[in-house]
Amino acid sequence: MRVRKAIIPAAGLGTRFLPATKAQPKEMLVIVDKPAIQYIVEEAVDSGIEEIIIITGRGKRSIEDHFDKSYELEDTLLKRNKVKELEEVQKICDLANIYYIRQKEPKGLGHAILCAKSFIGDEPFAVLLGDDIVMSETPCLKQLIDVYEFYHSSVLAVQEVPKKEVSKYGIIEPKGAMIEPNLYHVNSLIEKPKEETAPSRLAIMGRYVLRSEIFHILENLPYGKNGELQLTDAINELNKQQSVLAYNFQGKRFDVGNKTGYIQATIDIALQRPDTHNEIYEFLKGITKNLQ
């Protein structure tokens, strides 16, 4: 079956961005002029996804409002003849069919995925984590879907990270040689290994295409540390039943779940836009000149 549906977990508290996230979801923090989650939704849509379910939690209502129609705003823009702004606002609610379900307790990423079982059914599906924004010519998720459609196996997005940073990520242990350029069979996944014991530098980067058999595994998997259901544990179990692949995707990834990555993403995206490039470039040039 074709990959038509996607899950975007967005129930986290965003404590690394306090106090900004005290009253607004971290997914709604703005990068240039769009909230972070809109970049994720646009990647999904550009990859051919038709239906999206966003896993939310308490205090996340503004996410729903953002992708909903805003009659008062649209009417005001129309009366003021702000045609360009009106088109931008209308386009947001027409991106895809978006649904919402609440994760009532913080029980881990695996539990968040399990919340969407009835929505997904027996179809293959995508998972896009909101902390990762990827800028690439071909959307990162589309690259994974292309791999899935050829091999019909679950596939994870990976990229190499510096050795000193492997303890921050889930790391894959490849099995044998590459199947083709940038594509690996997965032997196992190790969550945040120590630098000296990490089996590779290939880190999982917040994009997955998974077969629906993962739900049965999640339902029967014991809860682990901090009472959480770990997706990596479930994928390791899935890998015992059927081959799981890892694809070293092409693109520039930003971890907008931390302050440095968020600032880097803002600068990079601003430099790519014709309406902000020149001013931001001159500003950065002035800063670097003063530092020398």
Automatic annotation (TrEMBL):
It holds the Pfam family NTP_transferase. Gene3D superfamilies: Spore Coat Polysaccharide Biosynthesis Protein SpsA, Chain A. The keyword Nucleotidyltransferase applies. Keywords: Nucleotidyltransferase, Transferase. GO terms for biological process: UDP-alpha-D-glucose metabolic process. SUPFAM superfamilies: Nucleotide-diphospho-sugar transferases. One of its GO terms (molecular function) is UTP:glucose-1-phosphate uridylyltransferase activity. InterPro entries: GalU_uridylyltTrfase_bac/arc, NTP_transferase_dom, Nucleotide-diphossugar_trans. Its EC number is 2.7.7.9. Pathway: Glycolipid metabolism; diglucosyl-diacylglycerol biosynthesis; Lipid metabolism. It catalyses: alpha-D-glucose 1-phosphate + UTP + H(+) = UDP-alpha-D-glucose + diphosphate. Residues 5-269 form the Nucleotidyl transferase domain. Belongs to the UDPGP type 2 family. This is UTP--glucose-1-phosphate uridylyltransferase.
